[in-house]
Structures are given as C-alpha cells and as structure tokens.
Amino acid sequence: MAARRFQLPGVQELGKQQEDALMLDRDGQHLIIGGPGTGKSVVALLRARRLQRDGDDYVFLVYNRLLLLASRQLFGEALRSDTWIGWFRRTFQRMTGNPTPCRGQPWDIDWPAVERLLLDFTPHSHQNLPHLIIDEGQDMPPAFYRSLVALGFENFYVVADQNQQIEPERHSSRQDIQEALAIAPERVVELRTNYRNRYPIARLAR
C-alpha cells in the first residue's frame, strides 16, 4: 500500500479569507486568527514559500519538535524553521552577548530577567533581521513578543487560535499579541471556514 502524501495547496485552491491572509503586505506586523481546520498553518507555510521564492530572509517558528517535523514534511526540507525556545535562546545570546536567563531548565526561560536585560539593549540600526513567521502563536508568552521587539525585529506574521493553548498559564491572547507587536486592526485576518472537520466536530472543538 502506497504511503499517503500531503502537500501544500496552490494559491488557486485557497478560500477568500485564506487569500486575504496570504496577500497581506510583505513587511509589517500581521496576525491571523482562526479555529481548528481553518488553514492557519497552511497559510503560514505558504507565506514562507512566498518569502523564500522572493529571496527574503525568514524563520518559521513552531512550538515543539513534533510541529517542526510536520511543517517540514508538508513544506519540504528547504523550510527555514526552528522551535521557538531554542531559536530565541541562541538569538538572544548572539545579539546581546548574554546567555538567556533560565529557571534551572533550558526551556524554562526567566522572562522578567530577559526583559530587564533588554532595558539597556539598543538594536543596531543597520542590522538586517529576518521576517518571523510564528505558528501557534497563542502558545508563546507575551514577554516573548515584547522581547523580540526590543531586540529590533520588525516583520511578524503570527497565526494563532486561543482555543488551542498547550500551556494555558503561559499563553498569549489575541489582545496580548496585538498589543505586544502593535498590530493594527486592518492587519488582523480572521479565518472562519473549516476545511478539515464536519460541523459537529468543529462545534465540539469550539
């Protein structure tokens, strides 16, 4: 029996809301909101494909290694991707010269200490930082986004669903992300059409 293969849809296969999300300006801060099965991750990966095709630098950030593997299987090994905590720790140390403060375990970042260190950090005006595409952005804390801004990152494309938080005590709400990244209302796209589940399943997920 042949293995089942998944691939990203073409732009012509997208719904109107997904098209709107994909066609947002190349630069700036954008937030895509949607429930399970609305194609948030697909749109994020298509955004990465568009940036890669145009020769733009980007990083596709996911919550954990399982999602990293799934994203690479769908996009291909050429995807410039990483887990968000590992990438942040390396980036923070490279840019500030300081190890990322942690509470014992490498994955338990001491965000108040990070933000205190960044109070005295001045981004280099000539630095060329990558576009950040962040999948499942509700599972990163608000301090993560504030710290990225303090480091000088400017171009964000975040997809999120408040109903799918892995760690609710550390999540970011839609308002948290909008405020941390100063995302204007016109740069928020809400996906409502469910392409994966039948109505009873989608209702249960909500």
Secondary-structure blueprint:
Layout: H1 16-22, E1 29-34, H2 40-53, E2 58-62, H3 65-75, E3 81-83, H4 84-96, H5 111-118, E4 131-134, H6 142-151, E5 156-160, H7 174-181, E6 188-191, H8 199-205
Parallel strand pairs: 1-5, 1-6, 2-3, 2-4, 4-5
Written description of the protein model:
There is one protein chain. Helices cover 38% and strands 13% of the residues. The protein has 8 helices and 6 strands. It has helices spanning 16-22, 40-53, 65-75, 84-96, 111-118, 142-151, 174-181, 199-205, and strands spanning 29-34, 58-62, 81-83, 131-134, 156-160, 188-191. The protein has a 6-stranded parallel sheet with strand order 3-2-4-5-1-6, sandwiched between helices. Strand 4 (131-134), helix 6 (142-151) and strand 5 form a beta-alpha-beta unit. Helix 1 (16-22) crosses helix 2 (40-53) and helix 6 packs parallel to helix 7 (174-181). The termini are far apart. Mean pLDDT is 85; it is low at 1-5 and 198-202.
